[in-house]
Amino acid sequence: MINGTRTIYGPAERPPLGLLVGSAAQHVGVLTAINIAFPVIVLNALPAGSVDGERFIGLAFLVLGIGTLLQCRGLGPLGSRLLVPSTFTAAYMPPILLAVEKGGLPLMAGMLRIAAVVEIGFGLILRRIRHFVSVELAGVVIVTIGILLGMVGFRLIFSLDPHGAAIDRAAAPGLGALTVVVMIFAAVYLPGSLKTLAALVGLVVGLIAAPFFGEFDLTRLPDWHETGLIAVPMPFFPVPTFDLALLPGFVIAGLACALRTAGDVTTAQRAATPGWRRPDYRQIARGILSDGVSTLTSAILGSLGTNTFSGSVGLSVAAGVLSRAVGILAGLILIAMSLLPPVRAVALMVPQEISGAVLLFSGAFIVMNGLFVIASRALDNRRILVVGLSLLLVMAHDAYPGFFAGLPPALAALTRSSLTVAIVCAVVLTLVLGLGQRHKRARAFTAAELPEMAEFVRGATAGLGMARDVAGMMVLAAEEVADLVRREGGGQGLDLTVEATDAMAALTAMLPAGVSLEKMPPPKPPASLDDVEDVDAYMTAVQRRLVLDRADCSEVQDHGGRRRLRIVFDQ
What we know:
Blueprint: E1 2-3, E2 6-7, H1 17-35, H2 37-45, H3 53-72, E3 86-88, H4 93-125, H5 135-157, H6 174-189, H7 198-209, H8 224-227, H9 247-272, H10 281-301, E4 306-308, H11 310-319, H12 324-338, H13 341-347, H14 352-375, H15 381-399, H16 401-405, H17 409-412, H18 418-432, E5 439-446, H19 450-463, H20 468-488, E6 493-500, E7 504-511, H21 535-549, E8 553-559, E9 562-570
Antiparallel strand pairs: 1-2, 3-4, 5-6, 6-7, 7-9, 8-9
Helix pairs in contact: 1-7, 1-12, 3-10, 3-12, 4-9, 4-10, 5-9, 5-14, 5-15, 5-18, 6-7, 6-14, 7-14, 9-10, 9-11, 9-14, 11-14, 15-18, 19-20, 20-21
């Protein structure tokens, strides 16, 4: 599809072969540069010699390939069918490191099963509790993820420890800075479709330049004659063990991953849908279920917990290549990489400065998409407080880590990461401030009071915090209803009720008995109005269809001698 002067390849569209392969290679390169750090960290935490490192890395690639295919290709009720690849996530790292320290791979596998069940359960009930998973909450999660990715990227580029102190590394900071500059230049100045491969261009230039910065020494690679060209990474299938003391950390991590998936899928929806209005909760639920099943599969095989990769979502938005075919090919490439020992060895050598450059580049696009999601709502004081206080607490968590580390154990479990802080704060404020409650405003009008009625609906939609496009459609629907009452109901009055929650907005009109709004086939468009025998009847039929089809759901029922019309819009 064409968006202004820019070509956007939607989820169901297939880019040209060269662009398809290049985009898939870009995502695989980014995933490899970022993901390899997590299994390496866990390997270092496991008792020496307890796990074959190369086998563990190969299994990690296999898990990511399976998770990416499941999310992008889909299987039954699983998968968002969007370009949302799988990754390992920092949300699981604190409890995982505690688990491997206490009980090795079996304890990690057991506790990850619990986290996966939590995420799957959340996905199953999402549509029932969606008024608590508001658009503002999704926006806060997206913005927080973008900020966290950018901050981690900045830290990796300049070789800083979590407290901001410099780490002595030969490559810092030139290699990461060069890679970022190349990505920015490619995204802004390269011609045509080459802009879509900005991250890949930066990765290639960074890897070529790395030896000049004292990094990426290929002479350290093992001899492929010894390792072989192909080796299937056999699963560990650890017998799971459990520890109740670790339960809160894994439950919170599972919920955080579910909400992160909701945020990533929402970002992909917005980018891929012209005239995007609101999240598709059915698609989000499928994405969360797929992510939970991926984590469960990974735990059974003996690998880490997975989550959707916000960095890839940001890159796809920046590139305009949103085709799920890219994700399917990327998943197949990851599975192939799991079979190749030389590739696994090279992946282990990617400098952290290049990984940081990718995170910083993609984080910028994720932050902006989160702000767009938040701004799509009519923000009243309650919503402003939910968004503002949550983001301020995220910044406070990173600025004053000692304060949060000194909290009582029950609270410390809820504040282990900035993302968890944002989620807990936003959910608590949503409950306390009553954003999930239903609010109504009602007033009776005569059929002649169209200007007053339109002004009432505008005021009610703004006061109830409806999305701007929903408010506009509701005003148009009310005007169509009033015009129909004038046509068919004579001078009889019209009672209107406007109500809203975070999940839906509804307009209810009590119509005179003579007004008909039954569902009917749309009138066949004539070549000219001159061919219509009864223009008034034709226009009335068109109006009826406009009123009923504009909404996400509508119904007309008899109600005490009058007709009750209810028009519902999802928010």
